[in-house]
Amino acid sequence: MGSGIAQVTSLSGADVTLIDTDEGALDRALAAIRSSLDRFVAKEKTTAEAADAALARIAVATDLKAAAGAEIAVEAVFERLPVKQEVFRTLSTIVAPETVLATNTSAIPITEIAAAATHPERVVGTHFFSPVPMMRLCELVRGIHTSDEALAKARAFAEAAGKTCVVVNRDVAGFATTRLICALVNEAARLVENGVISAEDLDTACRLGFGHPMGPLATADLTGIDVIAHATENIYEDTADPQFFPPALLRRLVAAGEIGRKSGKGFFDYEGLSTGLWTAGGAATARRVSRGRVPAPARRRWSR
Ligand SMILES: NC(=O)c1ccc[n+]([C@@H]2O[C@H](COP(=O)([O-])OP(=O)(O)OC[C@H]3O[C@@H](n4cnc5c(N)ncnc54)[C@H](O)[C@@H]3O)[C@@H](O)[C@H]2O)c1
């Protein structure tokens, strides 16, 4: 997510420093940005000169001190509150008091992250979507202390990067979008594990009946079933709402390491397929290899 946010920010003309404690992650990020920009050039969405210039505006660093002087710092580290809080605690000692501190968390309440920062009024949620260069939404989230000024700066930042913003006014776990996708994936997984419908038919129903470009189970495979399971656990912990308790099938797939495209298997089978960027209506659903279609064993395993 960090590399995607760096890419769209840099394309908007801003200088960007991409910071990661893992040097390998920085190398992978730059390679991913290069390859994404190449695709943009090939599709004539940008020029080769603009792509080269965007890449040249991105510096990399392994030390948070490189954020000194930033107008806005966007955190996109692991989805763990203590990790995020440590980043905000350290950033507070590095950047100016007026620097906006944004978090790309998908489900953790902004106020809990902001508790580690000085001047929590400048902390705001900027929830981008994967793949960032393709997805046009940025969900802005107010923490209890978030100032109008910080929200306006975050909006200007996201809009400059080509995103359309929606604002979540109350700091609830999962905001609006993560609650919606978790509720949908959880119910889809329950229907499949109870043998009500196959995974493939469920996704087909959502695509053809509701006009969704991708079914919820293929979406979970793309996002990572572990990521969805973790997000829904966070929401459940905060709300105690049973609809967010992760269904057994989700927990078993995570335990089995079958967490979607990145592992080659999830609700659907991706072996031999590229795990690169998804395009709407992509291989996950186009290829007719669905574990839900495999007659007896898959259904037995998933049914009560
Ligand atoms: N993947 C998605 O589809 C998606 C969508 C929206 C939001 N998010 C959110 O974005 C955030 C990042 O997700 P991701 O999928 O890119 O995760 P990721 O695991 O791919 O990347 C996280 C990166 O953070 C680095 N990191 C960890 N601790 C650090 C620290 N203290 N300082 C600097 N770097 C550190 C890691 O080395 C890693 O490269 C999470 O909060 C996630 O919930 C993810």
Strand order of the largest sheet: 3-4-5-6-7
Instruction: Assign an overall shape.
Output: globular
Strand content: 5-15%
- Helicity range of the residues? 40-55%
Order of helices and strands: HEHHEEHEHEEHEHHHHHHH
CATH architecture of the largest domain: 3-Layer(aba) Sandwich
Helical run tally = 13
Structural class category: alpha/beta
Largest sheet: 5 strands, mixed
Brief descriptors of the model:
alpha/beta; globular; Rossmann fold; 2 domains; 7 strands; 5-stranded mixed β-sheet; 304 residues; N-(1-d-carboxylethyl)-l-norvaline Dehydrogenase, domain 2; single chain; binds nicotinamide-adenine-dinucleotide; two-stranded parallel ribbon
Question: Mind sketching the topology for me?
Answer:
Layout (H helix, E strand, L loop, with lengths): L1 H10 L4 E4 L3 H20 L5 H9 L1 E4 L10 E4 L5 H14 L5 E4 L6 H5 L8 E6 L8 E6 L5 H13 L3 E5 L8 H17 L5 H12 L5 H8 L1 H15 L8 H8 L27 H4 L9 H7 L2
Helix pairs in contact: 1-2, 2-3, 7-10, 9-10
The site of nicotinamide-adenine-dinucleotide has 22 residues, from helix 4 and strand 5.
Question: Any overview of this molecule?
Answer:
The protein is an alpha/beta fold and 304 residues long. It has two domains: 167 residues, NAD(P)-binding Rossmann-like Domain (Rossmann fold, 3-Layer(aba) Sandwich); 123 residues, Orthogonal Bundle (N-(1-d-carboxylethyl)-l-norvaline Dehydrogenase, domain 2). Helix content is 47%, strand content 11%. The chain contains 13 helices and seven strands. The strands form two sheets. The protein has a five-stranded mixed beta sheet, sandwiched between helices. A two-stranded parallel ribbon has the order 1-2. α6 links the parallel β6 and β7. The protein starts with a helix and ends with a helix. About 9% of the residues have low confidence. The structure holds nicotinamide-adenine-dinucleotide. The site of nicotinamide-adenine-dinucleotide has 22 residues, from α4 and β5.
